């Protein structure tokens, strides 16, 4: 069973009870007072000659300097390593790590992946149960069974004539039929024979 | 062949059977019996579990809607209404609140929900619907004829 923890995460689309789930949370209320970027360092590993690293090489040449200027708190390491496929390895302040392969990806895609890693906290990507969270769901106060009831019922003395009366619901079917019968003014044969 | 770095010593012999099976067994870790540990039994259960989760996405939306309807009806019953009548009035008056928001109001903002129920009653009285007093003067309904 312990081998399961060494497993690299499957694609984030496969949610399972094993990987766990969580509600939306801001770790340590980051951003409410001051926002601290959680990304600590990012390592770009690539090969100087292989074709799969072409996009990575373009990115390092043109876009990486902009990323480094915009994120002065992030340490950027560039590791040229022969005969290895390119990858991004991000490490976060809470010790979390994220490894993404950039093999054969163009420079545009790498720009987007860098922006993705920039904004993440180091917590693992669990399935999020709900997209929203609030500590104060109610302003008016949640519903109670006595909210819409007359407070007089609290101090009423029972038996109580007014509170025990029947609610007027309209005419019942029996009453309607009786009225219809009376309108017809039918007389039974027995009554006719009695009167005559 | 000139081997210029140790990485090139590695030979790709084929797909890694152990780790592929480990990925499936990770998904079956919470199953019962042999289905969680034995790959040949687990693969069938895992495939079924994944297909169930795919099909359940539409069912979840359906179930949530039914739950919301139940909750809104419960909130309306307190005022002698039901959701069918409230929905008609909300559509007529242009209140574009969906079921999710209405059930949240019914639970967490009950006074706002009461306001919507009173709106329903007022609109129905204006149109002469669902009242014990009958329709307003000048209106003839089928029951009168």
Report on this model:
Chain B: One of its GO terms (biological process) is translation. Chain B: InterPro entries: Ribosomal_bL20 (IPR005813), Ribosomal_protein_bL20_C (IPR035566). Chain B: One of its GO terms (cellular component) is ribonucleoprotein complex. Chain B: It comes from Halocaridina rubra. The complex is a heterodimer of chains A (196) and B (145). By secondary structure, chain A is an alpha/beta fold. Chain A is built from six helices and six strands; from the N terminus they run ββααβββαβααα. In chain A, a hairpin with a 4-residue loop joins β4 and β5. The longest helix of chain A has 13 residues, at 107-119. The radius of gyration of chain A is 37 Å and the shape is elongated. The model of chain A is unreliable at 1-13 (pLDDT under 50). Chain B is mainly alpha-helical and 145 residues long. Chain B has two domains: 19-59, no CATH class; 61-127, Ribosomal protein L20, C-terminal domain (c-terminal domain of poly(a) binding protein). Helices cover 61% and strands 0% of the residues of chain B. Chain B starts with 16 loop residues before the first helix and ends in an 18-residue tail after the last helix. The mean pLDDT of chain B is 91. The interface between A and B is medium-sized, with 25 and 27 residues.
Please sum up the structure shown.
Chain A: It comes from Halocaridina rubra (Hawaiian red shrimp). The complex is a heterodimer of chains A (196) and B (145). Chain A is an alpha/beta fold.
Question: Nearest-angstrom radius of gyration of chain B?
Answer: 30 Å
Low-pLDDT runs of chain A: 1-13
What top-tier CATH class of the domain at 36-128 in chain A fits best? Alpha Beta
CATH architecture of the largest domain in chain B: Orthogonal Bundle
Helix content of chain A: 25-40%
Encode the helix/strand succession of chain A as letters: EEHHEEEHEHHH
GO cellular component, one term (chain B): ribonucleoprotein complex
Family (chain B): Belongs to the bacterial ribosomal protein bL20 family.
InterPro entries (chain B): Ribosomal_bL20 (IPR005813), Ribosomal_protein_bL20_C (IPR035566)
Keywords (chain B): Ribonucleoprotein, Ribosomal protein
């Amino acid at each position: 069973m312990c081998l399961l923890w060494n497993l690299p995460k499957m694609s984030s689309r496969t949610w399972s009870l094993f990987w766990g789930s969580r509600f939306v949370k801001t770790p340590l209320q980051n951003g409410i007072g001051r926002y601290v970027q959680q990304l600590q360092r990012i390592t770009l590993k690539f090969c100087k000659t292989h074709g799969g690293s072409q996009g990575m090489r373009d990115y390092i040449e043109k876009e990486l300097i902009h990323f480094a200027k915009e994120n002065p708190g992030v340490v950027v390491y560039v590791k040229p390593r022969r005969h290895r496929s390119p990858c991004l390895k991000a490490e976060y302040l809470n010790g979390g790590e994220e490894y993404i392969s950039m093999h054969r990806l163009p420079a545009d895609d790498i720009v987007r992946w860098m922006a993705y890693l920039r904004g993440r906290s180091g917590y693992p990507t669990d399935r999020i149960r709900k997209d929203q969270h609030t500590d104060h769901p109610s302003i008016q106060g949640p519903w109670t069974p006595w909210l819409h009831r007359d407070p007089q019922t609290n101090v009423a003395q029972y038996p109580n004539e007014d509170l025990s009366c029947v609610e007027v619901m309209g005419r019942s079917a029996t009453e309607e039929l009786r009225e219809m019968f009376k309108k017809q003014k039918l007389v039974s044969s027995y009554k006719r024979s009695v009167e005559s | 062949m000139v081997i210029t770095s140790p990485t090139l010593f590695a030979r790709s012999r084929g797909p890694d059977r152990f780790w592929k099976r480990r990925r499936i067994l990770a998904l079956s870790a919470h199953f019962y019996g042999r289905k969680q540990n034995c790959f040949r039994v687990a693969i069938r259960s895992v495939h079924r579990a994944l297909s169930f989760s795919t099909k359940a996405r539409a069912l979840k939306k359906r179930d949530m809607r039914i739950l919301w309807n139940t909750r809104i009806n419960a909130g309306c019953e307190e005022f002698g209404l039901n959701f069918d009548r409230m929905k008609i009035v909300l559509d007529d008056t242009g209140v574009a609140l969906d079921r999710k928001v209405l059930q949240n109001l019914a639970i967490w903002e009950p006074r706002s929900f009461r306001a919507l129920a009173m709106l329903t009653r007022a609109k129905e009285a204006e149109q002469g619907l669902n009242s014990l007093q009958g329709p307003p003067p000048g209106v003839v309904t089928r029951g009168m004829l």
